[in-house]
Predict the 3D structure of the following.
Amino acid sequence: MISAWLVQIIFRLVNFVLISCLFTHVFIKYFYPTLKEQLKLYLNALRSCRSAIKKVMQKGRSLDKDIEKQRKDAECLLENVKKWHLYIDKEKEKHHYEFNIRLQSIKNIYKTQEENYRKTLLYKKVVPQVFRRATIVLQDEYQNDKEKAKHMIETILKTVAQDNE
């Protein structure tokens, strides 16, 4: 008949199957829902992290683009500032040159006016004295011919008037 060891193996096998079924039933009834819920939470958290990572990566790329755009804008602005600085320097030189020309012109005009003023003062001082002396000398020389003396005095006056103009 059936040997004892065969019966023992069969009972062990049946016990194993029963214990396995019992363990599986307890696991599915008590542990599986909790594990399933935790796994869902974990997967949702993982999806949320992936979504957040994607958003951060997109934001990073957007920031990189913005940084590059701002860098280019800054370079353009710096170039414009350099051009403006050169323009201002040229304008300063131009105004300085024009100022010096005007200043020299004013100095020349002042010098000419000063010379003319000196000449005018000289004429105002000297001419009357010369005219008096000339009148005296001419009257002495032309005592007899008053008409000739008058003519000489008029000629001197015309000459002096022309020189003053």
In short: Residues 135 and 153 are 7 Å apart (CA to CA). The chain has one domain: 4-164. The radius of gyration is 62 Å.
